[in-house]
Amino acid sequence: MNRPTLVDERDAERPPAALLEAFDRLGTRVRFQREAEIYAQDDAAEMFYRVLRGVVRTSKLTADGRRQVGDFYYPGDLVGLEPGPLHRFAADGLTACELQVVRRSAVRAFAGEAAVDRAILEATAREMDRLQDHVMLLGRRSARERVASFLLSLAQREPSAPVDMPMGRRDMADYLGLTIETVSRMLTQLQGEAIVEFPSNRRFEVRKWGALEAMAA
Question: Which domains, and CATH codes, for the chain?
Fold first, then answer.
């Protein structure tokens, strides 16, 4: 089945122009290796980050020591726009990545308080939407539906097949609230039913868009 025509919903979520100009004029390009820490949970939120290359993962350690993956950020996404003084999640390079980094105080001086406050408010609203979607994903869907939704979200980012999957089974499990064994079993089932096909461990193709979308709906 042919893949459907996809609309980039992020066009409606572009940060304010003044903030992007501040990144372009004041930002420093910094490279991080895979698994390298960008900032830690509860660090002071003194810097803003824009992903230029690679994928960034955010995560949080719970009180009982378990890791919860927050989300994955791709080129063009902003990371670290916190409403408060501290980072609620840690961030690290899921892959080798390059980020534009700019000091929060420098952005305020360049773009003005209003532009920065609006950017933080909009970023917080987007994060709340993501969190709400994530809660619904974890609370209302079966393991099969969670994995299908995750694969669909990755496929919708790619303009062509096969789709690169930068995260491993552990990351998927910690994001979806499942065990690695369950994630692996669901992927095997989806491949066995010819809904998706994995030519390699980190790449897949959607073979039955309608079936995948129905499970993710």
Answer: 9-133 (2.60.120.10), 141-216 (1.10.10.10)
